[in-house]
Amino acid sequence: MKICVIGAGFFGLHVANQIHKRFKKCEIQILEANSSAFKGASSNNQCRLHMGFHYPRSGYTVYQSILGFDRFLKDYSAACNSVASNLYAINKNGYVTAEKYFAVMDSFHLDYKHIDTPKIFKKKSDIEAVIEAPEQWVDLDMLKKILIKNFKGSISLNISVSDIDPEYGKVFVDGKLYGEYDFVVNATYSNPNLGASEKFFDLKYELAALVNCETDLSADTAVTIMDGPFVSIYPSSVSTHTLSSVIHTPFMKSKSQKIIDENIDNIKTIAKNLDVKRNIFNHVNEFINVKISNDQLWLAPKVKLASDHGDSRVTEVKREGKLMAVLCGKLDAAFSASDDLLREISIDT
Ligand SMILES: Cc1cc2nc3c(=O)[nH]c(=O)nc-3n(C[C@H](O)[C@H](O)[C@H](O)COP(=O)(O)OP(=O)(O)OC[C@H]3O[C@@H](n4cnc5c(N)ncnc54)[C@H](O)[C@@H]3O)c2cc1C
To answer: How much distance in Å is there from the Cα of 237 to the middle of ligand 1?
Structure first.
């Protein structure tokens, strides 16, 4: 059996390794548009291994996170790090009250600890409650190393797939036939509708930014203000954190894929011209006492379901003939998506 995976991000490599575990004789080829693996959202994200605390308005996302958390820890333990003081603060001006927030978390039997509001928060009177939640941060470089080490197929870089024929499993590059496969897995994240006769997913698209920097916080501390137009700070290595802002992290938004196709090559310049770094930092500083240094922007495209108004980040798999496409909303949900893909392949082989 010959399978082509398009995209060498976390999900493309994860699914390739899961396929190989199950179908040892399968020949897997990954095609990657970039000059190396892990250049997209997989190395430019907030590094949070979610357990569900971030999604009080989407019970299904909480459910997927709970299911995925333990499996991620088991397979990628070397990349996972605990966050001793992982603070979630419920702001009075948000979309959910503390009562509703805890009702949702308790309905999933999530474990957390109430604490007094620490000094790190500005506008303390706006904070209704603070908890410590037992989530982890993911070392993205380590994650990449594990995935590459375990990968048994071939990766062809600088190959941008232009089309896919779902009926015959044909893959085209620059309009010319590149190869024919038993299955094609679209793991491009930013273009999951490529090749589908009818759109698999109705999406909205963003160019997104995080500030990755050194701070005066320890690597054991994370701060997230819920649930609305607020900010968070999360460890990204033993000496750095990312800063994100619900308002300024998505610095360009559209319902059209064109926003990514037309701007991705100039993403750095666009972010610089819009002063995205300063906007994120100023927003974080409205709510949190933190000093930063050695800052740099992490930039990536991001996609969400167009129908999402409850901040859901579900992961789904769609299929047409030999083509399967994944919308991988979060790292923890990769296992539920790869299970779905393996099921489809098993049925047909
Ligand atoms: C700002 C931000 C913060 C986030 N924070 C978190 C978080 O804290 N926790 C969490 O769990 N998730 C988070 N996510 C989501 C997470 O990063 C993604 O779910 C995950 O990285 C998706 O992995 P992927 O492999 O599907 O995508 P990518 O890593 O983007 O990989 C897709 C690959 O496909 C390649 N590609 C695209 N088009 C083509 C083509 N036509 N031909 C060939 N190759 C192509 C790209 O070059 C890229 O390498 C965040 C995302 C963003 C953007």
So the answer is: 19
